[in-house]
Amino acid sequence: MRNVIHQTRELAGITRQRLATARLCCERHIIARTGFRKPPRSRILCYHAVGTGAWSVNDIDPARFRRQLELALERGYRFVPADLIAEDGDGDKRLAITFDDGLTSVARNAAPILAELGIPWTVFVVSDWADGRWGQPHAMDWGEIDRVASQGAAIGSHSKSHPNFARISAAQAEEEIFRSREIIAARIGITPTAFAIPFGRSKGWTPEAHDAARRAGYRHVYAQAEETRPPGTIPRTFITRFDNDGIF
After folding, report:
1. Which of 23, 123, 170, 186 falls between 20 and 30 A from 31, CA-CA?
2. Beta-carbon-side half-sphere exposure of residue 226 (alpha carbons within 13 Å)
3. Per-residue pLDDT reduced to its tens digit, 72-104
4. pTM given for the model
5. Rounded CA gap, 41 and 96, in Å?
6. Do the beta carbons of residue 187 and residue 142 sit within 8 Å?
7. Residues in contact with 244: Cβ distance below 8 Å, sequence separation at least 6, in sequence order
8. Is residue 10 predicted with pLDDT exceeding 70?
């Protein structure tokens, strides 16, 4: 009976994931087909993987990633560090590139493209994943993180173990927020001043966690959405594998 219940829950989880992915795909294409556009303005773009198929909707093909950057440059956008937009607010036609999770495909596939085009960028790392915990084979280790930092990438925290902050206690949230910052500083000598919320939705962040982030010393807390972001956080635009030129 336990096996049946477990299998039922697994199937339900897979079904929900597929439905969410299908809904996201439809929403993106509806935006493109209806011609809905917001006026040109500054945006902080949120990527995850660049050539990690296992990341599904969060994975962008390297060729498409390059095309998106080149398209933005052709349209007259200027790339700046994320913190500059966070501090200055909205301005005309500026973009910032950020990556959540700290995946190896970002170091291997995205970093060379960004360097070639002279674009600054930020990567938010999960400290336990970089330590080799939780069996996350796609995450950069500290040597790779140190290398991209030496090449100009800004390093931020994406928590210690990537939890849903709405499902953990205030004490656990504080541990995730404070310890990840301390571990990053100890491993590579960089003390992050920016934090990206795992999953990035308003339901996955609490006032207690936000207060802990401020007390820990983070100047900026980034969400992964615009309209649904938690109060006091900085919006980003989530880029998916469905974003062709028209959607982008």
Report:
1. 123
2. 11
3. 999 999 999 999 999 987 677 999 999 999 999
4. 0.86
5. 12
6. yes
7. 32, 64
8. no
